[in-house]
Please model this.
Amino acid sequence: MMERTVTLGSKSGLHARPAAVFVQNAKGFQSQITLSKNDKTANGKS
Model:
């Protein structure tokens, strides 16, 4: 299994439109994608 960690450089995070584009692209992969910040996590495909 391959694992990658990517750090977003923006301190304000993802805004609505870029987040929607991210999810749209993420859905094209069969992998599990998880977004996290501090102690919170979210499914990167929803």
Remarks:
- The mean pLDDT is 91.
- The first helix runs from residue 16 to 26.
- Helices lie at 16-26.
- Strands lie at 34-37, 40-43.
